[in-house]
Amino acid sequence: MKAGARVAQGETLVFMDADGQHDPADIPRLLAKLKEGYAMAVGARQDHSQASWGRGIANRIYNRMSSWMANHRVLDLTSGFRAVRADRFREFLYLLPNGFSYPTTITMAFFRSGYPVAYVPIIAGRREGKSHIQPLQDGLRFLLIIFKIGTLYSPLKLFFPISLGFFLMGLWYYAHTFMTQGRFTNMGVVLFVTAALIFLMGLISE
What CATH number is given to the structural domain containing 97? Predict the structure, then answer.
């Protein structure tokens, strides 16, 4: 994908899977969104187009998490069917992994950079051949990519909730030990200090 984007001569790049899922007849619909001013148009698979119910549930989770991290509604984070302006796409080549999941990375990068992204509903056909996606391993990889891009573009979105979690645990532990033992324990100190350190790391990253 990255090599192709580097050598492509056109102003627009179109990506689609090679397993028969995507209908080339949908390409003009994606290109029409670029003519309207969008930087990228993504073919959003409908619920009944998911490969399996498990993949459908996983994609919903990824979409919700990425929407929260990006502050935009993400309808299909992992769709491989998209049209994008070549110059915008090349800005983020250094972020794209050499292996799986360029769609996840490029979608998060576009949203967090303020580039407009449009979603076009599509019906994905049944793939030919066997999927190479491993649900557990690649699922964790997708989550890691969401967190990495979130940390790069909006660190406090990730650091603050973790810091708040440790602070609330420290507050609860302090209240518990004060009521049962009448003192402030070392563990309470550790939880409060950890909350402060994580929050300060988020500020530095921001």
Answer: 3.90.550.10
